[in-house]
Amino acid sequence: MTDQETAREETFATLLGGRGGALDATLPSVGFVAGWLLTDQSIGWGAAIALGVGAAVGLVRVLRGDRIRAVLVGMFVVALAATVALYTGRAADFFLVQLVSNAASGMAFVVSWAIRWPLVGVVVGVLVGQKARWRRDPDLVRAYGRATLVYAVQYVLRVIVFGLLWWQDAVVALGVARVAMSWPLFVLMLGPTWWVFRRTLPADHPGLRHPRTA
Hints:
single chain; 0% strand; DUF3159 domain-containing protein; transmembrane helix
């Protein structure tokens, strides 16, 4: 396996926490929808089951060595989503936090491109131990910038789909979309993101592990 192939596997495949993190994050939403359906559309029971699933997921993550801070953040997000739904009395609002967070994430990726600190480059730089050295290479900055814009498309898609389903109060469809647009969409975006990155780099560039310096 070449350095570039290795970099692809250890960066894009682990971006945003990888498959385990993405799947773990969907389980409380599945629990909420299942609880809501099985208890005659009770938001209270749906929220309770979501919190229970979230706590169980958190315990499993701690046992497998995940950072406590990351586990607490995940549980806080579930608790916040449940609180919003309980406060408004609208089950679809359980997904409102997810909708807002995806909008914020998409905006962050676009802004990072605009200020020439593309987030794909920031994450890859940390993962391969380069920190910010890649920013001294104009070709890498350009390639990471374009890859960042492509990667941001998934957030736009989520906002559109979640937004429409939330507006229609489609609770079950929101639960299905929450699962379908987590890890599957992440995997789908790996190909075009990597392709744009590689196409942007000059043919003679040594690769993302070897930034050129002036």
